[in-house]
Write a structure and sequence with these properties.
Helix content is about 30%, strand content about 25%. It is an alpha+beta fold. The strands form 6 sheets. Strands 1, 2, 3, 4, 9, 10, 12 and 13 form an 8-stranded antiparallel beta sheet that branches. Helix 8 packs across helix 10. The chain starts with a strand and ends in a 5-residue tail after the last helix.
Length: about 475
């Protein structure tokens, strides 16, 4: 995206081949800063009879199109400029200038090019208009937010308020965001909050679970398909990228991106670089106007080192990396989270927004391997099992707390002195699996795909467990 802006407050070093990127760094005593590497185009000659001379265009997007007609990122109303003349792409090597079959050609420092990388200070000639390319680095200091709630996020700890501060500064930009963190830490809530606080909030927010679908189906899910392109493709389908681009352009959230197959990664990279897609079985390219947010429970940098994830795709996605902390690392937020979940809980019988002291002590003592998602499930289950009177007047006395649910279900201690360690363990695991699966399928209303996604479990493995415990869906 290109916008007309005044010159930046400070200019950094010239483009060194890494292109425009954002680095999140810790400086000094806990001071966080974002270093946003951008560039600008300055009209030095021509354009609307010379009227545009001196005009500046700040470039913050991955693809910038230059041409005569409205709809281009840089509009040059000059007869010598083609409707869509050329484009500038940001990739791992820098900024690539590419001619788009223009009538009068595209020149870089006086030489006509099809495509070439731009250096700091280079002059791009489009028709009779000359544009000077100037990279710069903008340092944005990130201070912890003073808020305890931001969008769909809740927390008063320093860890969460630092994330809030970063989100407040990054959300209005077009920067691609990569969210990492354990399962259940609220990566989806962070993505929704980024969208809600962005300039694209009026546009669609489209979620794709890259781990839930595989093969041709995930390609169709992302890019769409033409009728008859594969067995079962009885109609033309619009993919997630097209859907997110509707209504003036929205946000696409690629959840569990680390599960994306190696074969599909280069296709996704091409879409992110060129902002255009081709449906499965189609020949026509379709331009998309979207912001990309991705999330994964894996550490993609390690996956890159193992050769399981493309380095250039990782570079493209990790423009602004944010790591969501596990709940055990910010337990001081538990009272606030509990209050927030109880407020939002379905059902009119619940008026209280606090739990009793004993329940809170139990919650604080738990390690929360399932993080915030586990906390929400525990609260929903605990309230549902509580006596009616306890749910309508506070504080709420939760039943089925995380450290005692199996023991409470069996009516006494879960260990048998007559059995060995191995036998006790197998008995506990069997009972846990059976009760968890029943609860999971009830929560998902019998929908196996939904249950597998919520449990972060392979669908085939879930089928196997249901069959093992004779649970009929």
């Amino acid at each position: 995206m290109a916008t007309e802006l005044p010159p930046p407050a400070s200019e950094g070093p010239p483009d060194d081949g890494e292109g425009a990127a954002t680095r999140v760094a810790v400086e000094g005593a806990g001071t966080r800063a974002v270093h946003l590497r951008q560039c600008k185009l300055v009209v030095v000659k021509g354009g609307a009879g010379g009227a545009q001379r001196g005009r500046e265009y700040n470039i913050s997007g991955d693809v910038i199109r230059i041409g005569k007609v409205e709809g281009n990122d840089v509009v040059l109303p000059d007869e010598t400029v083609s409707r869509v003349h050329c484009e500038i792409l940001r990739d791992a090597k820098g900024h690539l200038l590419r001619d788009l079959h223009s009538t009068n050609g595209t020149f870089l420092d006086g030489a006509e090019i099809r495509e070439a990388y731009i250096r700091s200070g280079s002059v791009i000639t489009v028709g009779t208009v000359q544009l000077k390319f100037q990279p710069y680095e903008e340092r944005i200091e990130i201070l912890p937010s003073e808020k305890e709630e931001l969008g769909e996020l809740v927390g008063s700890s320093l860890k969460m308020r630092e994330i809030f501060g970063l989100v407040e500064r990054i959300a209005p930009t077009e920067a691609t965001v990569l969210i990492e963190g354990e399962t259940g830490t609220g990566k989806d809530l962070l993505a929704r909050t980024l969208h809600q606080l962005s300039r694209r909030k009026a546009g669609p927010f489209v979620v794709v679970d890259c781990g839930a679908v595989s093969g041709t189906l995930i390609e169709s899910e992302l890019f769409g398909h033409e009728k008859g392109s594969f067995t079962g493709a009885s109609t033309t389908r619009i993919g997630a990228f097209e859907l997110a681009s509707q209504g003036g352009g929205g946000t696409i959230f690629l959840d569990e991106l680390g599960e994306l197959s190696v074969d599909l990664q280069p296709k996704l990279l091409r879409v992110l670089e060129q902002r255009e897609i081709r449906r499965v079985g189609g020949n026509r390219t379709i331009k998309v106007d979207i912001r990309v947010i991705a999330a994964t429970k894996q550490e993609l940098a390690k996956e890159v080192a193992k050769g399981k994830f493309r380095e250039d795709l990782y570079f493209r996605l990790s423009v602004v990396p944010i790591r969501m902390p596990s709940l055990r690392d910010h337990k001081e937020d538990l009272p606030l989270l509990v209050r927030s979940f109880l407020k939002k809980m379905d059902g009119t019988k619940l008026e209280a927004t606090e739990v009793d002291e004993q329940a809170m002590q139990t919650l604080m003592a738990h390690d929360w391997p399932g993080n915030i998602r586990e906390l929400r499930n525990v609260l929903e289950r605990g309230v549902a099992l509580s006596p009616p009177g306890d749910a309508s007047s506070g504080p709420v006395k939760l039943l089925s707390l995380p450290t005692s649910e199996v023991e409470a279900a069996q009516g006494g201690p879960i260990f048998d002195a007559a059995l060995s360690y191995r036998d006790n363990k197998e008995r506990w695991e069997h009972e846990f699996e059976k009760r968890y699966l029943k609860w999971l399928m009830q929560r998902a209303q019998g929908n196996i795909s939904r249950a597998a996604r919520e449990a972060d479990m392979d669908r085939k493995y879930l089928h196997k467990l249901l069959k093992k415990h004779a649970i009929v869906v």
